[in-house]
């Protein structure tokens, strides 16, 4: 390992390749020096590919794990690739640097993280030195978020759950880490959509909430998933032709080299990730709906409409719940004149989504109980606890993502059922309104989720008040719940599951609570002069902070009706 570090330093100084091609070998060269030079490069290229593949096997657990042996393989692959020159493609050389950085990062202390940063920098510089642009499937590695994730990642380079992102080549550790990066992005995205986060909000209540964080991460995730496969085989055509040439010695084994080139090409392919792409499109739809930008959301409907087969057949039904909730919400948001039949159709879709949501919550509760029992059993063996620490952290992250996805589904279902109730008030009575039983079931699901996600409590108060409005319950208690829903609260990171700053909740709930009170509470409870107008103006101010154009438009319409 020390020798290969020194050899790499010599390559960086520009003398490594010359020493490799001269030295004692010059005493034995007679004729056809150019041909031998080409064969030397070809041998170096083939050896680099073998070392790279062996390193990948070490990282993915397909070979016995040895840290220093894997470091030796990574440095050997890089040095041999430097000797091979143009016979190793820019793409493959960059992957070698990234794979070595990932290997060094696995067990290096934090004080030596600069080594992995160095190899990541070399991977990026490989493209700039060649005058080419990194393939879209590799660009996330050079994004600030991706760079920090790789440097700080201590997770094993093995395939994870296919629930949130898929892997086309399980033997490629870069793809496996890419899967974990997408999962990390999704966790931040769901947390940002569910609980607006901003560090300065706790001290300044008048600052608008920005969706820039989730939006930038959503677009990054969407681009990562839509990248086309890398074609490494074409970049090695020159090597393939040489190995098939007439002057090729039998020891070169042209057929074997061809197989080797095909295998490394397959190992470099990054297929399109339909699973993560579907989640990214769903997140973009949720973001645009939160802003009241229904027209902008339409461009992602076609992706969401095609639920990947792996999610359709998944053990966890939360993707199907979100899919049905999405269809139900879309009917309400895009129907210019809602008929009773369309309302019933939306309600039936809500009922289907509600069943899937309850099944998902029950399944999550069962898994949580089993994991708790396993954790109690492992506490008796300290060695096992230490060995399972990373896996338990991964499970905790997956559970948090599932809870946030369930919360998004609850939001859509309860908002859709509330809209159906308000639209149908002119057709049916309050007590016999459409979907009241389903509303109660979804509210119970929201209560269950709020036990783990404390920042969702204002929504529980809000929809409890809406349920009371639907049943004409005591307005005094309803008013108290609406007031509690509108209380601005701050939660720390552990309470909301975000990896950012503190979560600030209550802005949207406060605006909706004010609107519901103005529209549905009896006159005696809002009898003070100008009280309704003041409440609507306050709601409009909250909605402007949230950038919710749709609800803000509805609020202004109510204000105009008051003036008339």
Automatic annotation (TrEMBL):
Name of the featured protein: Sterol regulatory element-binding protein 1-like protein
Keywords: DNA-binding, Nucleus, Transcription, Transcription regulation
GO terms for MF: DNA binding
GO cellular component: nucleus
Subcellular location: Nucleus
